[in-house]
What does this fold into?
Amino acid sequence: MEIINRELTDFKERKFPDKICFKPIGIIHTPFKTLKGIPIQSSMSDAKGTIEIFPEYILGLKDLSGFSHIYCLYFFDMVKLPVPLQSKPFLDDEVKGVFAIRTPFRPNPIGLSIFKILEIKENNINVKNVDVLDRTPILDLKPFVPGFDNLQTNKIGWLQGKIKREVS
Amino acid sequence: MEIINRELTDFKERKFPDKICFKPIGIIHTPFKTLKGIPIQSSMSDAKGTIEIFPEYILGLKDLSGFSHIYCLYFFDMVKLPVPLQSKPFLDDEVKGVFAIRTPFRPNPIGLSIFKILEIKENNINVKNVDVLDRTPILDLKPFVPGFDNLQTNKIGWLQGKIKREVS
It folds into this structure.
């Protein structure tokens, strides 16, 4: 985490929040108009879509076209709270803890996908590997950097031997 | 994105949100008590910390100990909005768009780190590779799965040739 002496809350004023609110920075347009048939991971999808960044954030897109991939954080707006804390994931028949699965039905329904950038035209980012419902609200974009983000591990718990290409 | 016919907002009721609110699921305890000296990426940190999941979410931790690493999503609670849409990142001297850098000073100040799981004891997860200020609110945990999340690419924009171990 980089923190410098820019606009910061003073430590004396710091208190732990009960509620944390965000405003969508954009909306994603995808071929997935219903909840059936959506790939369950971006790595399992060849679908294309367009992230429309709202005009007030367009200056934030400078330099993004130099990267091949982005992390996209979004809000699973179709999920109703509260969700069960344990449930069956797509790729197994036994109940798992919600923090050990990638289900959208999470206490905070935040999605994380990695998309390939195809082209950026003004406030529209054409992307590939889309696994998101059409008209999903976008919370953040971050550049994907293999030197920061790739990790070699064989310890993948209940997913061992279960990874196969699936759709919802 | 996995979506099934559980508790879902009806499509007829769906409307695009102005504001999206979450409740912290936990707090992270780290050695970084001030904003100086925090590693700028989890991959550049050997520091240890403890994610304390609030008791009401403890059932969600089932099966997580089978994984070696987790994505941790958190709230940069020290950042005051609005933030500039372009600024200088740690690793360069020229101004970049906020969505092309990993700064905490983002329109939605959501952090994303990958931590190694050392041990899970009840509602406490001891982790390594910590790059987060002490007492930061936690939003979500997801299992890290190389088959979903690792990507080979050399296209890393302005970061080309600039990745070195740094602290704030």
